[in-house]
# Entry
Amino acid sequence: MDWSESEEAVRKEHGRGFTGRFGAGLPAKTDGQMLFLQHMVAKAKTADEGGGRVAVVLNGSPLFTGDAGSGESNIRKWLFENDFVEAIIGLPDQLFYNTGISTYIWVLSTDKRPERQGLVQLIDAQELFDKMSKSLGSKRNELGPTHVSEIVSLYESFVEGPRSKIMRNEEFGYTKVVIERPLRMRYESNEETRALLRTNKVLAKLPHDVRDAICDAADAEGDWSTSDRNVTEARVAVWAAKPGKSTKALRDALLAGVSVVDPSGKPVVDAKGSVKSDPSLRDAEYVSLCDGVDVFIEGHVTPFAPDAWADRAKDKVGYEVPFARVFYVYQPPRALEEIYADLKASQQRIIDLINESSR
# Structure
């Protein structure tokens, strides 16, 4: 449900924090499912009141929509860190009249039994269904009594098996860590870079005679290339001062005009001596809360990019439910001999058809 029409009321409720219903966060306006989840938890009895249980059918998006720090991720973070999620049950697709998408039952509890505390049970019931003899709209599958009984049995037994996985709350969490690489540059002046100087936005604002004087000074030096930033700054400072008093904006524009990103160049440092990062090389790693970030970086980043570093000030914690990945079972590819035999058989059928059509 799109909640745009109720946005004012929803945001007002969110502004009340956890004294209202939507204190954990707001999802995208195009999908109100996670608002409904928070609403139901808010209406459930608290542990002090004897506890409450919620069961609600949702589609797949609440499992993973939204990156770390987003409203959706923050809502999941709140649910897991407060130990509200008891179980998530994956249902078959084509189960409802008006949609064929896969759905999931979220079972939430405000007062888990001791053996379930700190844990979440995932149940894969996606293959438990009967085909209907006649479809009803998008509904082509249905749960029979035996399927319902098996799902309930899996839930009540609370043991691991092919269709049941039990995980700790923190296993659904991760830290999004921003990985930076140094900005490496070389500096060169040639016909192309000098021609571009004449169309530079900063230079274009200058009087024609001033711009011509600067560009003529650059032309007079001819072609050159260096990896030394200090030498280059001194060069462009001379160009900028040709008409008279220069400005930092002008010097920066000239420096940018002769700067070329070069993976083998020297790292660029700022006025404080800190290495500048290259935005084009910026990446992010998603590190499980069960793993140490420093250990992960040392084992999975540094061996491949020794000059990389983690900007820990930008860390964000997120939560998602990788339902499909948890129940994924590797299927090895067929033997090459078997594939080759099938190809040969297909080729022979094509040849036979061609021979028949040419008779």
Observations:
- The chain has a mean pLDDT of 93.
- The longest strand covers residues 309-319.
- The chain has two domains: 4-171, 184-267.
- The first helix runs from residue 7 to 14.
